[in-house]
Amino acid sequence: MSDDSSSRGRGDSPSGRDETEAERLDRNLSELLQELRVALPGVQVLFAFLLAVPFQQNFSKITAFQEKVYFATLLLTALSAVLLISPSAYHRMTFRMQQKDDLIFLANKLAIAGLTFLALAMTGAIMLITDVLFGTAATVVTSVMALATFAVFWAALPLQRRGRLRSEGLLPPGRPEES
Question: CA 71, 73, 77 angle in degrees (round to 5)?
Fold first, then answer.
């Protein structure tokens, strides 16, 4: 059988599963959408919280540092929402144009970027609240711990596993984002 993915039959897919190329693309898209359904409510809740904060009575009493952290966190949250929702917009705009392969590749990149900005936004929210409640020392420690936690669980562990699979020759051929 040829290496061309369009000629692959069952069992010849890069994922090693017994599925056709079309079935693999459908599965990949379904998995990606399910993952986005997990992330988006967190973004929405954080964004709603940030939109409501300036209308609270004591908001005018925040420091210049807190004001900058608030605004940066608001922008990071908005950017995260844009990136995490973009795959849906892309899919709608390219519907029935046979672009699922490109959609999955691009959506994977957008989701990773969106989660990165979400981690930064959540760290910013933790930083802001900690600074209001406890002051500078607690803010530094808590913010560093929060960012480190995101970095370990959302980046280091999956990248370590990916590196191990690559070194063992177990990554499927082709674009690894699709498998």
Answer: 120
Which of 108, 52, 58, 50 has the alpha carbon at shortest distance from 75? Answer: 50
Q: What is the dihedral of CA 53, 126, 43, 120, to 10 degrees?
A: 120
Angstrom distance (rounded) from CA 6 to CA 14: 12
Closest alpha carbon to 46 in 139, 107, 145, 117: 117
Alpha carbon distances (Å) from 172 to 11, 64, 127, 175, 176: 13, 50, 40, 8, 7
Domain ranges of the chain: 28-168
Quickly state the pLDDT bin for 6 (edges 50, 70, 90).
very low
**DSSP 8-state assignment for residue 165:** H
CA-based max dimension of the chain: 70
| Mean pLDDT across the chain | 85
Reported confidence tier of residue 9, pLDDT bands at 50, 70, 90: very low
